[in-house]
Input
Amino acid sequence: MRNGGRIALACVLAWLIPGGGHLYLGKKVKSLVFFVVITLTFFVGLAMDGRVYLASSDQPLSYLATFANLGLGPMDLVGRHASYDQIIFRFPDELDRTHHQEILDRTRARILVQSHEYGTTFILTAGLMNILLILDVFDTGIGRKS
Amino acid sequence: MLRSHFFTLILFSALVSTFFGTLTRETAKDAVRLGGVMMVSMVGISLIVAYLMYFFPLG
Output
Protein backbone atom coordinates (compact mmCIF):
# COMPACT_ATOMS: atom_id res chain seq x y z
CA MET A 1 0.00 0.00 0.00
CA ARG A 2 1.27 3.50 -0.79
CA ASN A 3 2.32 5.63 2.15
CA GLY A 4 -0.67 8.00 1.78
CA GLY A 5 -3.12 5.12 1.92
CA ARG A 6 -1.29 3.61 4.90
CA ILE A 7 -1.48 6.90 6.82
CA ALA A 8 -5.17 7.33 5.96
CA LEU A 9 -5.93 3.79 7.12
CA ALA A 10 -4.01 4.36 10.36
CA CYS A 11 -5.99 7.57 11.01
CA VAL A 12 -9.32 5.83 10.33
CA LEU A 13 -8.35 2.97 12.64
CA ALA A 14 -7.38 5.51 15.30
CA TRP A 15 -10.83 7.05 15.02
CA LEU A 16 -12.65 3.71 15.04
CA ILE A 17 -10.82 2.20 18.02
CA PRO A 18 -8.81 4.24 20.56
CA GLY A 19 -5.20 3.14 20.08
CA GLY A 20 -6.03 1.30 16.84
CA GLY A 21 -3.85 3.60 14.74
CA HIS A 22 -0.85 3.13 17.00
CA LEU A 23 -1.35 -0.64 16.92
CA TYR A 24 -1.34 -0.48 13.10
CA LEU A 25 1.91 1.51 13.22
CA GLY A 26 3.47 -1.18 15.44
CA LYS A 27 3.35 0.65 18.78
CA LYS A 28 1.68 -2.12 20.76
CA VAL A 29 2.29 -0.93 24.33
CA LYS A 30 1.22 2.65 23.57
CA SER A 31 -1.91 1.44 21.80
CA LEU A 32 -2.89 -0.70 24.79
CA VAL A 33 -2.41 2.21 27.22
CA PHE A 34 -4.43 4.55 24.97
CA PHE A 35 -7.22 2.01 24.59
CA VAL A 36 -7.51 1.43 28.33
CA VAL A 37 -7.28 5.12 29.29
CA ILE A 38 -9.74 6.46 26.72
CA THR A 39 -12.27 3.64 27.12
CA LEU A 40 -12.11 3.91 30.90
CA THR A 41 -12.51 7.71 30.79
CA PHE A 42 -15.56 7.37 28.53
CA PHE A 43 -17.32 4.66 30.53
CA VAL A 44 -16.60 6.31 33.89
CA GLY A 45 -18.19 9.43 32.39
CA LEU A 46 -21.28 7.47 31.40
CA ALA A 47 -21.44 5.79 34.82
CA MET A 48 -21.42 9.26 36.39
CA ASP A 49 -24.54 10.13 34.36
CA GLY A 50 -22.64 12.33 31.97
CA ARG A 51 -24.09 12.83 28.49
CA VAL A 52 -22.89 13.48 24.98
CA TYR A 53 -23.79 16.82 23.46
CA LEU A 54 -26.37 17.57 20.79
CA ALA A 55 -25.73 20.29 18.22
CA SER A 56 -28.18 23.15 18.62
CA SER A 57 -28.35 26.37 16.62
CA ASP A 58 -29.39 28.19 19.83
CA GLN A 59 -26.04 27.28 21.40
CA PRO A 60 -23.16 27.69 18.89
CA LEU A 61 -20.61 26.16 21.29
CA SER A 62 -22.62 22.93 21.28
CA TYR A 63 -21.24 22.31 17.76
CA LEU A 64 -17.69 22.23 19.14
CA ALA A 65 -18.73 19.93 21.99
CA THR A 66 -20.54 17.62 19.55
CA PHE A 67 -17.41 17.55 17.37
CA ALA A 68 -15.33 16.59 20.43
CA ASN A 69 -17.80 13.79 21.19
CA LEU A 70 -17.65 12.55 17.59
CA GLY A 71 -13.89 12.11 18.02
CA LEU A 72 -14.70 8.89 19.86
CA GLY A 73 -15.89 7.16 16.70
CA PRO A 74 -18.37 4.30 17.22
CA MET A 75 -18.13 4.69 21.00
CA ASP A 76 -19.92 8.01 20.57
CA LEU A 77 -22.98 6.08 19.33
CA VAL A 78 -22.97 4.10 22.59
CA GLY A 79 -22.91 7.42 24.45
CA ARG A 80 -25.83 8.78 22.43
CA HIS A 81 -27.88 5.67 23.05
CA ALA A 82 -27.09 5.76 26.77
CA SER A 83 -27.84 9.49 27.02
CA TYR A 84 -31.00 9.74 24.93
CA ASP A 85 -32.06 6.13 24.25
CA GLN A 86 -31.62 6.80 20.53
CA ILE A 87 -28.91 7.79 18.05
CA ILE A 88 -29.35 11.52 17.63
CA PHE A 89 -26.89 14.30 16.78
CA ARG A 90 -28.98 17.48 16.63
CA PHE A 91 -31.39 18.85 19.18
CA PRO A 92 -34.87 18.30 17.70
CA ASP A 93 -36.65 21.32 16.29
CA GLU A 94 -39.26 22.88 18.57
CA LEU A 95 -41.85 22.25 15.85
CA ASP A 96 -41.41 18.54 16.51
CA ARG A 97 -42.92 18.99 19.97
CA THR A 98 -43.12 15.39 21.16
CA HIS A 99 -39.56 14.55 20.19
CA HIS A 100 -38.28 17.90 21.49
CA GLN A 101 -39.94 17.36 24.87
CA GLU A 102 -38.69 13.77 25.09
CA ILE A 103 -35.06 14.80 24.58
CA LEU A 104 -35.50 17.76 26.94
CA ASP A 105 -36.85 15.44 29.67
CA ARG A 106 -33.99 12.99 29.24
CA THR A 107 -31.45 15.82 29.41
CA ARG A 108 -33.07 17.28 32.53
CA ALA A 109 -33.14 13.89 34.24
CA ARG A 110 -29.37 13.58 33.78
CA ILE A 111 -28.60 17.18 34.73
CA LEU A 112 -30.26 16.65 38.12
CA VAL A 113 -27.70 13.99 39.06
CA GLN A 114 -24.92 15.37 41.25
CA SER A 115 -22.07 13.93 39.18
CA HIS A 116 -23.55 14.91 35.79
CA GLU A 117 -21.13 17.76 34.99
CA TYR A 118 -18.12 15.66 35.96
CA GLY A 119 -19.36 12.76 33.85
CA THR A 120 -19.93 15.00 30.83
CA THR A 121 -16.39 16.38 31.25
CA PHE A 122 -14.98 12.85 31.33
CA ILE A 123 -16.83 12.00 28.10
CA LEU A 124 -15.72 15.22 26.37
CA THR A 125 -12.12 14.63 27.48
CA ALA A 126 -12.19 11.07 26.11
CA GLY A 127 -13.27 12.43 22.71
CA LEU A 128 -10.60 15.16 22.70
CA MET A 129 -7.90 12.67 23.69
CA ASN A 130 -8.89 10.42 20.78
CA ILE A 131 -8.71 13.39 18.38
CA LEU A 132 -5.17 14.06 19.66
CA LEU A 133 -4.36 10.40 19.00
CA ILE A 134 -5.55 10.70 15.39
CA LEU A 135 -3.28 13.75 14.93
CA ASP A 136 -0.39 11.87 16.56
CA VAL A 137 -0.88 8.92 14.21
CA PHE A 138 -0.87 11.33 11.25
CA ASP A 139 2.34 13.01 12.46
CA THR A 140 3.99 9.63 13.01
CA GLY A 141 2.83 8.43 9.60
CA ILE A 142 4.31 11.37 7.67
CA GLY A 143 7.54 11.13 9.67
CA ARG A 144 7.17 14.35 11.62
CA LYS A 145 7.35 12.32 14.80
CA SER A 146 9.24 9.11 15.52
CA MET B 1 -21.33 6.68 41.62
CA LEU B 2 -18.25 8.68 42.60
CA ARG B 3 -19.83 11.06 45.08
CA SER B 4 -16.42 12.20 46.31
CA HIS B 5 -15.21 15.30 44.47
CA PHE B 6 -11.65 14.64 45.58
CA PHE B 7 -11.63 11.06 44.30
CA THR B 8 -13.08 12.28 41.00
CA LEU B 9 -10.25 14.81 40.79
CA ILE B 10 -7.65 12.11 41.49
CA LEU B 11 -9.16 9.75 38.90
CA PHE B 12 -9.41 12.43 36.21
CA SER B 13 -5.85 13.61 36.86
CA ALA B 14 -4.52 10.05 36.75
CA LEU B 15 -6.22 9.26 33.44
CA VAL B 16 -5.21 12.50 31.71
CA SER B 17 -1.63 12.33 33.06
CA THR B 18 -1.24 8.74 31.90
CA PHE B 19 -2.50 9.74 28.46
CA PHE B 20 -0.15 12.70 28.01
CA GLY B 21 2.82 10.88 29.54
CA THR B 22 2.37 8.04 27.06
CA LEU B 23 1.64 10.35 24.13
CA THR B 24 4.59 12.69 24.49
CA ARG B 25 7.38 10.42 25.78
CA GLU B 26 9.01 7.44 24.14
CA THR B 27 10.42 5.51 27.10
CA ALA B 28 8.34 4.14 29.99
CA LYS B 29 10.59 5.86 32.52
CA ASP B 30 10.10 9.30 30.93
CA ALA B 31 6.37 8.71 30.55
CA VAL B 32 5.97 7.80 34.23
CA ARG B 33 8.04 10.82 35.28
CA LEU B 34 6.02 13.28 33.17
CA GLY B 35 2.73 11.63 34.17
CA GLY B 36 3.66 11.91 37.85
CA VAL B 37 4.63 15.57 37.58
CA MET B 38 1.42 16.34 35.65
CA MET B 39 -0.78 14.53 38.13
CA VAL B 40 0.78 16.17 41.18
CA SER B 41 0.52 19.57 39.43
CA MET B 42 -3.13 19.11 38.50
CA VAL B 43 -4.16 17.96 41.97
CA GLY B 44 -1.98 20.54 43.74
CA ILE B 45 -3.14 23.50 41.64
CA SER B 46 -6.78 22.42 42.02
CA LEU B 47 -6.43 22.27 45.81
CA ILE B 48 -4.74 25.70 45.91
CA VAL B 49 -7.46 27.25 43.72
CA ALA B 50 -10.15 25.53 45.81
CA TYR B 51 -8.59 26.91 48.99
CA LEU B 52 -8.41 30.43 47.53
CA MET B 53 -12.09 30.19 46.52
CA TYR B 54 -12.92 29.62 50.19
CA PHE B 55 -12.52 33.40 50.70
CA PHE B 56 -14.99 34.28 47.93
CA PRO B 57 -18.49 35.21 49.08
CA LEU B 58 -21.13 32.53 48.44
CA GLY B 59 -24.02 34.77 47.46
